[in-house]
Amino acid sequence: MAGVVQAGLKAGALDMKAVAEVLNAAVKAGVSDSAMGSMVSMAAGAFPADSPAIASSAVRSYGTQVTEAQVRNIVASAVAVQPHPYASVSPICEAVTKALGNSMVANTVPSIAVSVAAATPDNPLQGVTTQANGLVKPGEEASGGALVLPGGLPVGGTPTSPSPVSNPAGN
Q1: What are the residues whose beta carbons fall under 8 Å from the beta carbon of 90, sequence distance 6 or more?
Q2: How far is CA 169 from CA 85, 110, 119, 123, in A?
Q3: Could you give the CA distance from residue 50 to residue 124 in angstroms, rounded to a whole number?
Q4: How many Å separate Cα 64 from the centre of its chain?
Q5: Would you give per-residue pLDDT tens digits along the chain (171 residues)?
Q6: Angle 97-101-107 (CA atoms, 0-180°, nearest 5)?
Q7: Contacts with 89 (C-beta within 8 Å, 6 or more apart), sequence order
Q8: Phi, psi angles (nearest 5°) of residue 154
């Protein structure tokens, strides 16, 4: 299947309808999750503006049997090849949520979004440390407590009274 995607891209004959058909055929053929991730990556890399549609098409290909692990794989694969991965997480996850409808897996997309965003190379919160109180010096290890920006100022608090955060996104 990946060869079909590559050949279609090189020939300029691959469009969104063809991508959806290839993804549907891949699921029917029982491809592995890693092969599906590779196809989503190739298609999302070829059509960056259509990445949300590609991800939602891949999710729809699995039908009602889609699992959280498959959704996580699809989202991560589509995000990884984007020019601005962190900014692409939200639109891709929104499209995937719509594709999932009212399924139980749709409830897991927000946590998938947080974990995928945290792993992106352009994540603005990278290099952030945590500590219990006071200022952290650049390069100093800090543990447990509040989110602290590089340079020592806690997010959402004061240098002597940092406020706790509930997730890696800082909210």
Answers
A1: 113
A2: 15, 11, 11, 10
A3: 24
A4: 21
A5: 556 656 666 666 567 787 888 888 999 999 999 999 998 998 888 888 889 999 999 999 999 889 999 999 999 999 999 999 999 999 999 999 999 998 899 999 999 998 898 888 887 776 554 544 455 554 555 444 445 555 555 454 444 444 444 444 544
A6: 55
A7: 75, 79, 113, 116, 117, 120
A8: -65, 145
**Mutual orientation of helices 68-80 and 109-118 as an angle, nearest 10°?**
40
**In terms of Cα–Cα distance, which of 136, 97, 135, 131 is closest to 113?**
97
Token digits for 135?
């200022």
**Long-range pairs, 60-66, Cβ under 8 A, ≥24:** 60/20, 60/99, 61/20, 61/23, 61/24, 61/26, 61/27, 62/27, 63/27, 64/103, 66/100, 66/103, 66/105
Residue with tokens 């092969």: 35
Q: Please give the backbone phi and psi of residue 36, each rounded to the nearest 5 degrees, phi first.
A: -65, -40
3-state secondary structure of 134: coil
